[in-house]
Amino acid sequence: MEERARFTEVAERAGHYESFYLKACAPGGGRGVWIRHTVHKRPGAEATGSIWFTLFDREAGAPRATKLTVPASGLSVPDGGWIRVADAEIGPGDANGSLDVAGLAASWSLRFGGDDRPCRYLPADWLYEAPLPRTKFLAPFPDAIFDGTLKIDGDEIEIAGWPGMIGHNWGTEHAERWIWLEGTGLADSSDTWFDAGAARVKLGRRTSPWVPSGFLSLDGVRHRLGGLGAIRSSRIEETPSGCAFLLPGKDIVVNGRVSAPREAFVGWVYADPDRKGGEHHTVNCSVADLELTVEQPGRPPRELTLPAGAAYELGMRETDHGIPIQPFGDG
After folding, report:
1. Distances (CA, A) of 227 to 126, 134, 166, 292
2. Is the overall model pTM greater than 0.90, yes or no?
3. How confident is the model at residue 67, as a pLDDT?
4. For residue 276, what pLDDT is reported?
């Protein structure tokens, strides 16, 4: 399946959202960057594009974040790349860009490589072209290493051997509620990474249970987690600042927890790509603490940890979570 942007294929009458994003953390954790290139389109309207930038630093406290939104004229697919929004572009092996909004100026020039075997969370490739599910997601580089430079308000940060990932999602609606869990650069094992999510979707007037999906790559061997058949045997207990979870797979169970101080989270508004104009509050920390216990038949439990280097995101309808929301609209 070819990795490509989908927004150029969307009919004028349809709604659509799409995101290419990167997450990278300093070796040993504590400082990380999260950059999103997004498209938002309501039915019958032109698309808009946005660049979302966040620098996380557990020692410094609150993340430094900003966002730039441009009309359809600022959106394109560059030769050999995935997407360009204003002055920011990402494609296989490179991410470059800049923005200066709301008193924060940031620019980046990054190169990345690593495991470029895409991590496809849906169980069959044909589902990525089908109307359902309404949200598609994959990781073109689930285990990447970043090098380059990052400048923020004149201060330069050298990016040398930072572990991270590249993600891509798109669809016609956001889930009613979702979580994202991610960890690369685990100190306990080489060739090991974790990337999983779970969603609750609207079914008429009802909302589904959590539907989990993801992968644990353990010593270079990928194990699929979750799926429709694992709804009853999975467990997800989420709050705005942390999540405890149990995700089963074939001959494997991953039990874990991810958390961070509330002041380490950034909060955003995500607009639904439909005519109703609904919104989610989304909180993200890309320097969270991750603990995993991996159980496999005939083997002792294995403990994996990633202090201040994992990602945790929660998308929700409620607004009383206590995490400040950035002063930028969406859509």
Report:
1. 16, 16, 22, 19
2. yes
3. 98
4. 86
Identify the structural domains of the chain with CATH numbers, from first to last.
8-316 (2.40.370.10)
Strand partners, 52: 36, 67
The residue among 210, 295, 193 whose CA lies nearest residue 253 is 295
The residues that bridge with 65 in the sheet, in sequence order, are 54
Cis, bond preceding 133 (omega within 30 deg of 0): yes
The DSSP line for 108-130 is EEEEEEEE-S-EE-SSSGGGGTS
- Nearest 5°: phi and psi at 207? -120, 135
pLDDT at 273 over 70: yes
Classified as helix, coil or strand, 41 is strand
User: What b/e sequence results for 101-113 when a residue is b if at least 16 CB atoms lie within 10 Å of its CB, and e otherwise?
Assistant: eeeeebbbebebe
The label of the residue with tokens 């509050």 reads: 281
Angle subtended at Cα 34 by Cα 112 and Cα 270, rounded to the nearest 5 degrees: 135
Give 96's strand partners.
89, 109
Q: Are 151 and 142 in contact (CB under 8 A)?
A: no
| Rounded CA separation 157/46 (Å) | 37
State CA 287 to chain mean position distance: 13
Q: What is the mean pLDDT of the chain?
A: 95
**Alpha carbon distance 245, 255 (integer Å):** 6
Round to whole Å and give the CA distance between 330 and 230: 34
Model confidence pLDDT, tens digit, residues 295-311? 999 999 999 999 999 99
CB 324 within 8 A of CB 265: no
Radius of gyration of the CA atoms of the chain, in A: 19
Contact 143, 217 (CB under 8 A): yes
